[in-house]
Amino acid sequence: MKKYKVTQEFMDALKEWNDNHKYADGVTLINQHTLNELPEDVTEWVFEVSTNVAEKNRRFGAIINWINGEDVFEICTPSYIVQRKVFNLFIGRQYISRGNYGEISMTRNKKDATRFDDFNKASEWSNTHFEVVEVDE
């Protein structure tokens, strides 16, 4: 299985979720209850709108493999994007995309969002409707 590049924030949330759902023997049981409590970052990553169904299944499988002790995640160097704060399960998130001539548009595909290497530069684009997030790609 390939290694997925994820952010430190993603891994911290996943580790906390896993720690909170371990039984006395140190094993996490995956069931409807534990799945409903997956952190938002993890849920968004698995069910990302631009990802096909087979890849969503592979991502979900990677989480299970990680719980079972396999090394399936790799922490990547952070970069930042600006996303709309409101998440909709049907259309996903919207991201700010700057064109070659400075025009600004919205995209639903995270891969097309404008990347910033510096959190402060990305923060210049945030406001009450948009937030800066670290990305794993």
Tell me what the structure shows.
The mean pLDDT is 87. The chain has 137 residues and is an alpha+beta fold. The longest helix is centred in the middle third of the chain and has 15 residues, at 53-67. It has helices at 8-20, 32-36, 40-46, 53-67, 119-123, and strands at 4-6, 73-75, 79-84, 95-98, 104-107, 130-135. It is built from five helices and six strands; from the N terminus they run E-H-H-H-H-E-E-E-E-H-E. The strands form three sheets. The chain has a two-stranded parallel sheet with strand order 1-2. The protein has a two-stranded antiparallel ribbon with strand order 3-6. A two-stranded antiparallel ribbon has the order 4-5. 18% of the residues are buried. The two termini are 18 Å apart.
Features:
137 residues, 33% helix, alpha+beta, 5 helices
Strand fraction equals: 15-25%
> Cα distance, first to last residue?
18 Å
Strand count, sense and barrel status of the largest sheet are:
2 strands, parallel
Helix tally equals: 5
**What is the overall pLDDT average?**
87
Apparent shape:
elongated
Tell me the helix content: 25-40%
- In which order are the strands of the major sheet placed? 1-2
Number of distinct beta strands: 6
What structural class is derived from the secondary structure elements?
A: alpha+beta
Give the SSE order as H and E letters. Answer: EHHHHEEEEHE
Which ranges are low-confidence, i.e. pLDDT below 50, for 5 or more consecutive residues?
none
Supply Rg: 16 Å
